[in-house]
Amino acid sequence: MLIPAAELSRYWLLTPPVVVHIGAHEAEEFDEYRRLGWGVDGTVWVEALPEKAETVRQRVSAGSNQTVLNLVLWDTTGETITFHEASNGQSSSALAMKEHSDLYPQITVTRDREFTTSRLEDALDLDALGAIGLVNLDIQGAELRALEGFGRHIDNVSAVYSEVNLREIYEGCAMLPELDEWLGARGFTRVDWEFLDDGWGDALWLRTNAIPTGRGIGRESRKRDEKYRNWYNRHPIVGRVFPRPR
Questions:
Q1: What residue ranges define each of the domains in the chain, with the CATH number in brackets?
Q2: Which among 18, 89, 111, 243 is most buried, taking Cβ atoms within 10 Å?
Q3: Does 239 score more than 60 pLDDT?
Q4: How far apart are CA 21 and CA 9, in angstroms?
């Protein structure tokens, strides 16, 4: 996560009792979620690769209310697709690499596998899950397809944090304006983001009618504090003597 979970809590007051994490990889966020009190009423981890899903099961077994699903989430159920497994694991995707191959030539596809897709609303009882405080997506360009798989249950989601693309990193990947439009039509506003020079990044959307305000809240405060931290890191001795820069 380019914006750490702790900063989402600090600057956006996120304390989601229910989390749906799509693209779990090895559940690297599990300990941080527990430390912050996220997902206390339920955390759903979704991972496409069976081997990684088993790793997730083992890792989250120490927590309560943890559900692990080995699925390729899509906007259709029952479609057979080719899933491209990458040499670094984290770049594996249901979409073929495009500009990714030029940006990161050291990362290659090591195996193509056929999987059957699922809409989340077909694979999980979302009515029983109830209000979802946060959906976290990290699925290399297939984010919009997964969101469409929520169906009407997207109305029960309060916040969406997602990897986003500003360039066609993967063939046919959802671009940031598409996510803005789709989520905007469903009552969300993009409130925070971090973009890398390589043409991708992360972004946060919140319900437009529930965006927190106040002193020390929001992207401006986060970026200001980041600037101060970076300044102190570069001037550790001076920073102990003089007030922080304005």
A1: 5-212 (3.40.50.150)
A2: 18
A3: no
A4: 16
